[in-house]
Design brief:
Helices cover 7% and strands 37% of the residues. With 141 residues, the chain is mainly beta.
């Protein structure tokens, strides 16, 4: 994971990629819904009007272990209530989807997946796709 200052030393964030709690995702049948998160690691509040713009600039990446990297935007619009992000707090994007949502032509194989926001890079998750099903290789995500 990468963390850095957005506006001088006052506003610092860390981005991460995880798996959304499936108990909270009832509107989809996605097996491993990705969770795009921003954590405020600074001392100043990240104002609510800044948060959608951060996610709207986010890019998800996928790299087959034996192929070429692909990437795409994951947040196309914003329809969720936003609140100020206090120091130490985390905000999760409302997007619900797995690797097929973002990369529909994914074939069988092993993949690394992460997201970026400018110079920020999240942690990397590992998945295996077999017969159109996604299996998670790193259960602690």
């Amino acid at each position: 994971m990468t963390s850095a200052s957005l506006h001088g030393d006052e506003l610092s964030i860390k981005i991460s990629l995880g798996i959304r709690d499936s108990k909270l995702v009832t509107t989809t049948n996605v097996a491993y819904p990705l969770a795009f998160r921003i954590e405020n690691i600074g001392k100043a509040v990240v104002k609510e009007d800044q948060i959608p713009g951060l996610f709207l600039k986010g890019v998800i990446h996928i790299l087959p272990k034996d192929g070429k990297e692909q990437h795409t935007e994951f947040q196309k619009m914003w329809r969720t209530r936003v609140y100020d992000l206090q120091p130490g707090a985390t905000f999760e994007s409302p997007v619900v989807g797995d690797i097929f949502t973002f990369f529909p032509s994914t074939k069988d194989g092993d993949y690394w997946v992460w997201w970026t926001l400018g110079y920020f890079k999240s942690n990397v998750l590992s998945f295996t796709v077999t017969n159109g099903k996604v299996l998670r290789n790193d259960p602690k995500a």
